[in-house]
Amino acid sequence: MPFRIQNIKLALLAAALIALFTSMGFWQLSRATEKKILLKTFTQRTHLPPLQSKTIQQSGDWRFYQVTLTGRFDIAHTFFLDNKTLDGKIGYEVYTPFIATDLPEPILVDRGFIQGNQNRKILPIVQTITGQTTITGMLNHAPSYVHMGKLTYSPANTWPLRVEYINLSELAPLLQQSLFSYVLNITPHDPAAYTVKWQIVTINPEKHMGYALQWFAFALTLLILFVALNRPHHKNSEEIF
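RESULT FIELD:
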């Protein structure tokens, strides 16, 4: 098929865009694979019997394993993770340290979502769980996402404390002690829980596959357009490439 590049600069731009669109497609495919593996691991591990505190002190990957802990909540220190939504409601994710028997450090427990007050200056009232209790939950990494600014904008550390993100090493000085390396997502039926939904991924693998097909379609469309507009019978028409 006869072919001649009409405009080298636009040809280079087209090549760069085709390469970009293609790479984005393959990146979405890799994300889909990662999510499939993550969801498979979650399903397998959450169906196993809960572990005990002595087990999770050993080195290893304990993410998504369930664990049963006995101890007490540090009711004097609760964190409200700001800017959370659930079913169209705006509020906070409630985190309270739990001092467990046989664990050398307190573990931060994600107790679920609580709706906020229309007046931002008024924080919700936290349910107090006193005395020794036994809780069950799923071990997970602290939530990670892009955040801007400081951990907290409070001029003084008044409790409960509103925070912009969860970072265990940054929370430790506020508690004057280090925290266990995993967060515990409490089970939905626990008396200490608020509204709990174990959401492992925000975008499922199928959506990533759909995004990949879109990027590949963009690359293919641009390639077809580039070839068509650089065939000789277009030389007298308005040159795009």
